[in-house]
Design a protein that fits this description.
The protein is an alpha+beta fold. Helix content is 38%, strand content 30%.
């Protein structure tokens, strides 16, 4: 388009979402009520797939409590992961899978991200009594970068072993998917 600012800043997608909400649900939402997070074509983004292994059924009733659980997970996630990125988009995808899209900061490191995700998993386990693990793609530029990183995270998820836990990430070496699992930052092993 001649002036791509509406696309880049998220306004075009926001207006389309408002129209769809009105047609599908008969609700009127103000554009000010939407959270708009601009995606910059020169910024690097990475996608993290967070899988919930299981939730303690004595605490979380799958029929009613999962919306509360997901709100708790999102709030804790934002608190723990925000310091290691510029922006964070949390997508409540399904009962057992969540996605986190992060705009990479200039001082980003996988070690910091890994430590934050493992800390997050520990908090989820201790406070919410759920087990989780994280599959992470690598940073790529712009909107297409989000898709590439998502595909990498999904590849890691589908190629993990049954005993995978903690933090797994994609390494782009010779077009193959190598998985590194690390229950602690000091103990890395090739799986």
């Amino acid at each position: 388009e001649e002036d791509p600012s509406l696309d880049v800043n998220g306004w075009d997608a926001a207006h389309k979402a408002l129209i769809l909400a009105m047609l599908a649900y008969g609700t009127t939402i103000s554009p000010d009520d939407l959270e708009k997070i601009p995606v910059h074509k020169t910024s690097d983004y990475l996608t993290i797939l967070m899988e919930i292994h299981n939730a303690n059924p004595e605490i979380w009733d799958e029929k009613g409590d999962f919306s509360l659980l997901h709100t708790i997970l999102e709030n804790i996630c934002r608190e723990i992961l925000q310091p290691v990125c510029k922006e964070l988009i949390y997508i409540d995808y399904s009962q057992m899978r969540q996605y986190i899209i992060m705009e990479k900061s200039s001082d980003f490191s996988f070690t910091d991200l890994e430590q934050s995700c493992l800390r997050l998993a520990g908090i989820y386990d201790n406070i919410a009594q759920i087990s989780t693990f994280f599959c992470c793609g690598t940073p790529h530029e712009g909107v297409e970068g989000i898709r590439y990183s998502y595909e990498e995270a999904l590849s890691v998820f589908h190629n993990r072993t049954a005993s995978s836990s903690g933090f797994l990430y994609f390494t782009p070496q010779s077009h193959s998917c190598l998985l590194y699992t690390s229950p602690s930052p000091r103990d890395r092993s090739l799986s």
